[in-house]
User: What shape does this take?
Amino acid sequence: MRIDVITIFPEYLEPLNVSLVGKARARGQLDVRVHNLRDWTHDRHNTVDDSPFGGGPGMVMKPEPWGEALDAVTAEAEEGERRPVLVVPTPSGLPFTQELAVELSERPWLVFTPARYEGIDRRVIEEYGDRFDVREVSIGDYVLAGGEAPVLVIVEAVARLLPGVLGNAESHRDDSFAPGAMADLLEGPVYTKPPVWREREVPEVLLSGHHGKVARFRRDEAFRRTTANRPDLIERCDPAALDKADRALLAELGWEELPDGRFGRSASAVEE
Ligand code: JBQ
Assistant: This one.
């Protein structure tokens, strides 16, 4: 896979040399090219932004440097196979999900255009929307100063899905949020040696060697975490994915079975 990033802060992308993504690059599985947007400015101050038409606070990124940069970086784009996906991080984009990570991982070429918070002149997105597949994406509902950190997040989520990048092909299967993971539950706690640390013991069942009981324990813990941290995942859980023990545990945790077999927080639990 080829990845281009066009940014006014190339140093911000240095972490792409480290760890999983860095190793994938070193092995030739990922071709990452980081470009400085200011290389495509022509004035003395290398200006990339200007005040917004219509007024308002902050600055907007000018279209010309982005246009020249995108034309240069994507010059080799061909129709069909090598059609790049333009990934535009923005707080007003579609939520970035594992599903989108999988979709992007199946494409040969991603081009990222992280911008400062107020964003890029809209005409740039329109112009390239005609030539490439454009995905405007947000990594979450909080305030960031720019799109560079979202690029790091998205590239890591995508890179680990590329064939051969993760050592063990099995490692994908149980990911929380992986399609087909434990019925979209969060993962429970994990433990390793020593079996006792500062007088804290590893749950006995995990040392028992009883695979059925271990699986049940893990599933119960996954439900406890998911009800506590992500009740929305329980609410949209497919009732067919719930066994008898799951239902009993949810009831014990204060959830009630609805007429359609789904679960909802009982009135008393919602009040809290
Ligand atoms: C978003 F993608 C961006 C770009 C700039 C600021 C942002 N703030 C919150 N979430 O992912 C985002």
The two ends are 48 Å apart (CA to CA). The longest helix spans residues 211-229.
